[in-house]
Design goal:
Oligomer: single chain
Radius of gyration: 19 Å
Order of helices and strands: EHEHEEEHEHEHEEEEHEHHEE
Distance between the termini: 24 Å
Number of domains: 2
Shape: elongated
């Protein structure tokens, strides 16, 4: 998961970048409105509303105009009620007032990403290589043969199938399936092992060392 951190205080940005990276996120830092507008696509933006080259509220409006699916959390020292209301009205999904703890920020990030994932349109049928998934019926076939999966196994497979051929981080799987990144990562490994056994070919789900797992696209 990619996070765009828009923060002009370089010490704060460095600390947040380090903390978020330890939690498995890819972080791009932008210290200005101009840099934020040129940044690569991301899943979520942490947005300071006070920036040296413009108003963060205008940036928030522009980011929301570009993408209705982007998660946006305003991270700012402006704690008055009118500021919080304005932040939400211009397109932010949540509002965090400085100072804050990483535990609180992490919980808010997870909540926003969950809402964004549920709001995104879901294809009813997904085919990746020999794997066929009927999302509505929650059934799986491999080489046209139906495979019986538990609810967690199905959700893990669906998380991988949404990004066929791409390496999906363990934290992304935890968030999709368990709704949090605080769960024991060993739990993912156990369920992946069971999923591979039921699919009948361990090569269908590949381990990407240091990152997570990939559903082979061919």
């Amino acid at each position: 998961m990619r996070i765009l951190l828009v923060e002009d205080d370089h010490r704060v940005a460095a600390a947040l970048t380090a903390a978020l990276t330890r939690r498995g996120y890819q972080v791009e830092h932008a210290a200005t409105v101009a840099a934020a507008l040129c940044a690569a696509p991301c899943d979520l933006a942490l947005l300071d509303l006070t920036l040296p080259d413009g108003d963060g509220t205008d940036l928030c409006r522009e980011l929301r105009r570009r993408s209705s699916q982007l998660g946006i959390i305003a991270v700012t020292a402006r704690g008055e009620e009118r500021d919080r209301v304005l932040g939400l009205r211009i397109g932010a999904d949540d509002y965090v007032v400085k100072p804050f703890s990483m535990v609180e920020l992490q919980a808010r990030i997870e909540a926003v990403l969950r809402r964004a994932a549920h709001a995104a349109p879901e294809r009813n049928r997904i085919e990746v290589g020999p794997v066929q998934i009927d999302v509505a019926a929650r059934t799986v076939r491999i080489h046209a043969q139906e495979v019986m999966l538990t609810r967690k196994e199905f959700d893990i497979l669906l998380s991988l199938a949404r990004q066929p051929g791409a390496a999906v981080p363990r934290d992304r799987i935890l968030l999709d399936v368990w709704g949090t990144t605080f769960a024991d990562r060993h739990t993912v490994e156990v369920h992946i092992g069971s999923l591979r056994g039921k699919l009948g070919d361990p090569r269908v789900v590949e381990t990407v060392r240091g990152i997570g797992y990939r559903l082979r696209n061919g």
